[in-house]
C-alpha cells in the first residue's frame, strides 16, 4: 500500500487503528487523570463500539482498502530481534524513573506476544511486582503520527502517559516494510519538544494546519513546520487554541467534512481573531505573517471559500456539551461522507441543515454492506455511531484513526 494522504477527506484506502483491549480495564479511578481518561470505561462495550465503527469504515472503503490494527503490525516488527532491542533501549532511555534497566535482560528475552502485553498493560511476567502503567490511549492512533502527502511526521507525546506510544510508532516506522517509502525522510521531533497528530490537519499537499495546543509545543510546531516545508508543503497555518483538557488538540474543535466544509466549535475557532500565523519558506529561514481568523487564512491560502458548520448548532450550552463529547471531531471516509458519535444530536441536526443525509451506522452498513460504496459527487452523508464508552477516553472518530492512504482529490 502506498503511503499518501493529501487531504483530510479523500476516499479512505488505508487506516491504522487500535481496537481497545485489556489495557483499558487497568485504568483505575485513582490513576485515570494521570492516564488522561475522564472516567473508567467498560472494555467489552468499548470494544464492541469500536468494532462497529470499523464495520462502517470497511463498508465505505474500496474493496482493496485496509483497516490495519496497530498491534498486528507491531507484533510483526517485534519478530525481529533488532527491532525488539531498539524498542527496549528507547524505553529504558525515555523512562528513567521506571528503572527499566533492572529488567532489561528479561525484557529482551520476551517473545513478541509477551512484549506486547508489557507494552499495552505494563505487566511483566515472572518479574513479581514489576509493572508500568497501562497504555489505554493507544486507542487514539491519530496522535501517534501524521501522514502528509507522501511523508510522515512522527509525533512526540507531550504527556508521559502517551510517550510509550510515540516510541512504538517510531519503532514501526524504523522496522515495518509498510513504512519503507517514508522511513528515511520521516520528520522527527526530539528532546523536550512535543507534537501530537491530533494537531496536524492536511488541507492539501501544499497547505497544513498545526494546532498550538496543550500538546504541541512552540518548538515542536516549528520543528514540524521546518520538516514539512522542506518536504514540499508551502504553507503551515499555526492555529493558537486554548491550552486545556477539553480541546487538547486542534481536531477536538475543528475537522474537515467535505471539500471546503468544516465543523468548528464556535467559541474557540469562529469567534477568535488574530489566532492564526502563516509560516512559509523564505530561503533558508521561515517567514511568518498574521492572519485574522482560520476561515480567512484558509480562504486566502487556497483561493476558495469555506463553510464552517457549528458543532452543537446555535445554542451555547449544546456547543459546549457536544464539543466535550467530540461533536467537532468527525472523520471523513470520503468527501462529504463523515462519521461521528450519535450522541451529538444537535451537531447532526445542523449537518442536516447543511445538506447531509443522516444515517445510523446500521443503516449505512445495511445499505452499502453488499456492494461497493462509490460516493457520487456532491453526495453528503453524516453517519452516526454509538460510542458511549469510547467517548469517555475524550476522543472521537478522527482521534481513533491514523489514515495512511487516501485517494487524491480531483
Ligand atoms: N486527537 C485527539 O484529540 N485525541 C484524543 C486523545 C485523548 C486521550 N485521552 C488524551 O488525552 O491524549
Automatic annotation (TrEMBL):
Pathway membership: Amino-acid degradation; L-arginine degradation via ADI pathway; carbamoyl phosphate from L-arginine: step 1/2
Enzyme class: hydrolase
Short name of one Pfam family: ADI
EC number: 3.5.3.6
GO terms, molecular function: arginine deiminase activity
Catalytic activity: L-arginine + H2O = L-citrulline + NH4(+)
Similarity-based family: Belongs to the arginine deiminase family.
Protein name per its UniProtKB record: arginine deiminase
Organism: Gracilimonas mengyeensis
Amino acid at each position: 500500500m502506498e503511503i499518501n494522504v493529501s487531504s483530510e477527506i479523500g476516499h479512505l484506502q488505508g487506516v491504522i487503528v487500535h481496537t481497545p483491549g485489556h489495557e483499558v480495564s487497568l485504568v483505575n479511578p485513582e490513576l485515570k487523570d494521570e492516564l488522561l481518561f475522564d472516567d473508567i470505561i467498560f472494555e467489552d462495550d468499548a470494544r464492541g463500539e469500536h468494532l462497529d465503527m470499523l464495520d462502517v469504515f470497511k463498508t465505505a472503503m474500496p474493496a482493496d482498502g485496509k483497516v490495519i490494527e496497530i498491534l498486528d503490525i507491531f507484533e510483526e516488527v517485534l519478530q525481529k530481534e533488532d527491532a525488539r532491542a531498539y524498542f527496549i533501549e528507547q524505553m529504558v532511555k525515555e523512562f528513567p524513573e521506571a528503572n527499566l534497566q533492572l529488567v532489561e535482560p528479561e525484557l529482551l528475552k520476551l517473545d513478541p506476544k509477551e512484549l506486547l502485553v508489557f507494552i499495552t498493560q505494563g505487566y511483566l511476567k515472572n518479574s513479581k511486582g514489576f509493572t508500568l502503567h497501562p497504555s489505554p490511549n493507544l486507542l487514539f492512533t491519530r496522535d501517534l503520527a501524521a501522514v502528509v502527502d507522501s511523508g510522515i511526521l512522527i509525533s512526540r507525546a507531550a504527556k508521559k502517559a502517551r510517550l510509550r506510544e510515540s516510541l512504538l510508532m517510531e519503532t514501526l516506522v524504523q522496522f515495518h516494510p509498510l513504512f519503507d517509502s517514508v522511513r528515511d525522510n520521516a520528520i522527527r521531533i526530539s528532546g523536550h519538544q512535543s507534537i501530537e497528530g491530533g494537531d496536524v490537519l492536511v488541507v492539501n499537499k501544499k497547505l497544513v494546519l498545526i494546532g498550538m495546543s496543550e500538546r504541541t509545543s512552540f518548538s515542536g510546531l516549528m520543528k514540524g513546520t521546518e520538516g514539512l516545508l522542506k518536504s514540499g508543503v508551502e504553507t503551515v497555518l499555526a492555529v493558537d487554541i486554548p491550552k486545556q483538557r477539553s480541546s487538547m488538540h486542534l481536531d477536538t474543535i475543528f475537522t474537515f467534512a467535505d471539500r471546503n466544509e468544516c465543523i468548528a466549535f464556535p467559541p474557540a475557532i469562529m469567534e477568535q481573531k488574530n489566532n492564526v500565523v502563516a509560516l512559509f519558506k523564505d530561503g533558508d529561514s521561515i517567514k511568518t505573517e498574521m492572519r485574522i481568523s482560520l476561515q480567512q487564512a484558509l480562504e486566502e491560502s487556497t483561493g476558495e471559500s469555506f463553510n464552517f458548520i457549528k458543532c452543537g448548532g446555535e445554542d451555547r450550552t449544546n456547543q459546549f456539551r457536544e464539543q466535550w463529547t467530540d461533536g467537532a471531531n468527525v472523520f471523513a471516509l470520503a468527501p462529504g461522507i463523515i462519521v461521528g458519535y450519535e450522541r451529538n444530536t444537535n451537531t447532526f441536526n445542523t449537518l442536516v441543515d447543511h445538506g447531509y443525509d443522516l444515517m445510523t451506522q446500521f443503516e449505512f452498513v445495511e445499505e452499502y454492506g453488499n456492494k461497493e460504496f462509490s460516493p457520487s459527487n456532491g453526495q453528503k452523508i453524516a453517519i452516526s455511531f454509538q460510542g458511549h464508552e469510547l467517548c469517555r477516553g475524550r476522543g472521537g472518530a478522527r482521534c481513533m484513526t491514523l489514515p495512511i492512504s487516501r485517494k487524491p482529490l480531483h
